[in-house]
Specification:
five-stranded mixed β-sheet, about 650 residues
């Protein structure tokens, strides 16, 4: 369902009648003006301007031929016009540019002179030297083209008026603020789109897969709108607002659309950026207009998507000065949601993936009473989402949906939809009749790692270094009990990476120190392999070093996983130090943090080198196999190193705890 679809088809473009009920005639007058100018040029110039020639050509060719009827000297522009005798015009058709007979009226030619007095004397001298029957008439006149000058003088003002007219119409269309138009003076109107109960293509909770816990939260709001007496008889009050919080692509907007479809009440939908405008006071005006319309339609639901665009905390502006316009808009929103006025029957739904930057006054009870967390889907929820997006796809017989759900941990609903579409495109590219398991695996690889670049030129020495690097990752992760299980390794470039190793992370809620340390060791396995086998380091491990450094700092400064630092966390969940110039710890503590981070990384690096040294034979064999095949899977690693050791029951209980 597209939120921009109006209830009963797209409305006709707004017509702006004048006092007589007709459209403005400015365009018609403009066309008449242009037509009049063209007619003037055609009538007064006979459709053809005179051709410029030189005085010598007129003197030696035209005058001596006896074809000149008259020479007219225009004194105010120092120009002489040549009129040819009507009987002789046909001789000059080619020179005048006519394929047939040229017009009989003149002038046909003209030439420019420096001073009309000298020119008149020369022309009269030449004329007197001719026989009496070949002499021509010499006129002098002062010509003023008043109409032409008027056109020249009016051209620029007319263009300015037309530009202003068209710009005004565009501004009126852009700031209409709704189907009614209203021109630039309606810039303060709300841009919210209204969906009533008769709207087609409704989305209900049946169309939204997963999000079971979030559905329970919003179902109470829907139930109150349908059966208000059930709650009011006991003295209960429905929450005034609910804030949907979660990562991008988890279905927050889709859930709000489902609420609109289930509630059968008017539903106003708009984005937080719709309040933001370049004009001062427009945002607050739009907020007032939105709630005015909502009160008229009560009971109703108002949904504000990406509310962080207007609800950012007033103390968290990155600059030294605040954005007064955005703050005024936020202040008006706070007042409308819970101020002196009454908003009975108006329920606010909002969605954001940046709840940490929202203003505290916006999150308090009475405005957003509930914060509904829409997290990334788990295994069962991913399975339901795949069932929704696979409805229109032609799958091979016996396709296992459980396999897809297991292969996509950490994927959002939008990611799953992208996987399904990418798999269909890949199968079509290969001219298949149905979509197979491998097509989905290729789609997942492409989304995670990027498009394969087999044409990228890599020397044999670089290819060998990449193979040992990726084999180092695979070997260390296979030998460590708590590291993430390996799926496949490739040395085919993908995206910006020259090689990649795919892992299947476990869905766990908490992570122990041992698990983090072993994951760091597996990440450093590539750098350790380069040092042990090649005897030199390269820039290929920059991404590994970045990930390890961030993880080590998080362990020490956030999670308190250091004996020397102790049970302290310097993580700022409130964002107070986001734009501050001071840190919440001393310089001595900063040095201690750096030392502990270095010790953690060095310990993980030594672990990786020790494993590679112990299993050097299998590690080398794995690298050679990777050079030969370019892609190897977990089965190939198992044939070299044997089955991966499973954690004991005690370790599993500790992990679950």
């Amino acid at each position: 369902m597209n939120g921009s679809i109006p209830p009963k088809g797209p409305p006709p473009p707004p017509q702006r009648p004048n006092a007589n009920g007709k459209r403005p005639r400015v365009i018609m007058w403009f066309y008449l003006l242009i037509g009049g100018f063209i007619m003037y040029m055609w009538v007064f110039n006979n459709g053809k301007s005179p051709v410029q020639v030189q005085w010598q050509e007129v003197k030696e060719q035209i005058i001596t031929s006896g074809d000149v009827a008259k020479l007219s000297l225009i004194t105010n522009i120092n120009r002489v016009e040549v009129y040819i005798k009507k009987d002789s015009i046909s001789k000059y058709n080619k020179k005048l540019g006519f394929t047939s007979d040229a017009p009989k009226s003149g002038p046909q030619f003209y030439f420019v002179v420096q001073q009309y007095t000298d020119a008149y004397a020369k022309i009269e001298e030449v004329n007197n030297s001719l026989p009496l029957e070949e002499q021509f008439k010499i006129d002098t006149e002062e010509r003023n083209d008043y109409l032409g000058r008027l056109f020249e003088w009016l051209t620029f003002p007319i263009l300015l008026l037309l530009l202003w007219f068209f710009m005004f119409r565009r501004m009126s269309a852009g700031f209409g603020g709704g189907p009614g138009g209203g021109g630039i003076f309606s810039v303060g109107r709300s841009k919210a789109q209204l969906f009533d109960k008769d709207h087609k293509n409704k989305i209900t909770f049946k169309d939204v897969a997963g999000l079971e816990e979030a559905k329970v939260e919003v179902m109470e709001i829907v139930d109150f709108l349908k059966n208000p007496k059930k709650y009011t008889e006991l003295g209960g009050k429905i929450p005034k607002g609910a804030l949907l919080i979660g990562p991008p692509g988890t279905g927050k907007t889709m859930l709000a659309k489902a609420v609109a479809g289930e509630a059968d009440v008017p539903f106003f939908s708009l984005s937080g950026s719709d309040f933001v405008e370049m004009f001062v006071g427009v945002g607050a005006s739009r907020v007032r207009d939105l709630f005015r319309q909502a009160k008229e339609k009560a009971p109703c639901i108002v949904f504000i998507d990406e509310i962080d665009a207007v609800g950012r905390a007033r103390s968290k502006n990155a600059g030294f000065t605040s954005n007064d316009e955005r703050e005024n808009t936020l202040n008006q929103l706070l007042t409308e949601m819970d101020g002196f006025g009454s908003n009975t029957g108006v329920i606010i739904l909002a969605a954001t993936n940046r709840a940490d930057i929202l203003d505290k006054a916006l999150l308090r009870a009475g405005r957003f009473d509930r914060q509904i967390h829409v997290d990334l889907p788990e295994f069962r929820e991913r399975l339901d989402i795949f069932k929704v997006h696979l409805r229109g796809l032609k799958l091979v017989d016996g396709f296992e949906l459980d396999f897809l759900a297991k292969q996509t941990p950490g994927f959002s609903g939008a990611d799953i939809a992208n996987v399904c579409n990418e798999a269909a495109l890949i199968a079509a590219r290969k001219n298949k009749k149905t979509i197979e398991k491998q097509d989905f695996l290729d789609a997942i690889d492409r989304i995670i790692g990027g498009l394969e670049r087999k044409s990228k030129i890599i020397t044999q020495e670089e290819k060998r270094a990449i193979a040992f690097h990726e084999a180092g990752h695979a070997t260390v992760s296979w030998m460590l009990d708590h590291a993430t299980p390996l799926v496949k390794v490739t040395i085919i470039p993908r995206g910006r990476a020259l090689g990649a190793a795919w892992y299947l992370p476990e869905e766990r809620q908490i992570t122990t120190t041992e698990q983090l340390c072993e994951e760091m060791a597996a990440t450093l396995g590539g750098r350790a392999a380069e040092e042990l086998v090649l005897g030199r380091l390269s820039t290929g491990a920059v991404n590994d070093l970045e990930r390890v450094t961030k993880q080590a700092y998080a362990m020490v400064s956030y999670f308190g996983m250091s004996e020397k630092v102790g049970n302290r966390s310097y993580y700022d969940s409130s964002g107070q130090y986001e734009f501050g110039f001071s840190r919440p710890y001393s310089e001595k503590t900063a040095e201690l943090l750096d030392d502990e981070v270095k010790n953690l990384i060095d310990k993980a690096y030594d672990t990786a080198k020790q494993i590679l040294t112990t299993y050097m034979e299998g590690f080398t064999k794995l690298a050679e196999l990777l050079l030969e095949r370019e892609v190897i899977f977990a089965d190939d690693v198992e044939q070299i190193f044997g089955p991966r050791r499973k954690p004991s029951r005690q370790e599993e209980l500790l992990r679950e705890a």
